[in-house]
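Re-running the complex after MR caught last week's input typo. The corrected sequence lines follow. Everything else is unchanged.
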Amino acid sequence: SAVISQKPSRDICQRGTSLTIQCQVDSQVTMMFWYRQQPGQSLTLIATANQGSEATYESGFVIDKFPISRPNLTFSTLTVSNMSPEDSSIYLCSVEDTSGGLNEQYFGPGTRLTVT
Amino acid sequence: EDQVTQSPEALRLQEGESSSLNCSYTVSGLRGLFWYRQDPGKGPEFLFTLYSAGEEKEKERLKATLTKKESFLHITAPKPEDSATYLCAVAGGSYIPTFGRGTSLIVHP
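Corrected-run output:
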């Protein structure tokens, strides 16, 4: 399975500012995913990022708020823009492993964001 | 719309006390059901994929089973290190998994 790292691991930010989260994978992957995990809630998919194309956003998430970059097959960034306290959450990067037939997902350690 | 409901929300066990976690689901065309373990402050760790009703998979003290409506994660003789949140997810026609809220398991020594 892929080894995934994220930076930063946690941050405390002022409202109105932006934070960029980095996700690095130790192997080339086609699809990368960004999730949000709020306290007591299930993982919610924000968007799917493919290299060389625009990210695909899920309902309720927009590019202006969560711009995503995918410059190559091992790296992606998610920016949380114009933050408010409601954006406080854990943000997770994940990748697919297609070797098992069905697309199993593996997750990074997460970025814990607190907006004050 | 795919839906996943996990129960109970929280479970406390004594070391050695076996139990089961439930994952009920509705999905249009099940392609796979996934179990993950998540420790505090960490990302989910993949445990199992089940593809069809009747399938079972085991890993150490964990055994996952699947029917057409639900999956169980059986924990046999748990140890304190099994304490974690266990997440269930299903993938249907969209291939993107839908996650449940998880069951928080605490195993007391």
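None of the earlier attempt is carried over here. The mean pLDDT of chain B is 94. Chain B touches chain A at residues 4, 31-32, 34, 36, 41-46, 49, 51, 87, 89, 91, 95-102 (CB under 8 Å).
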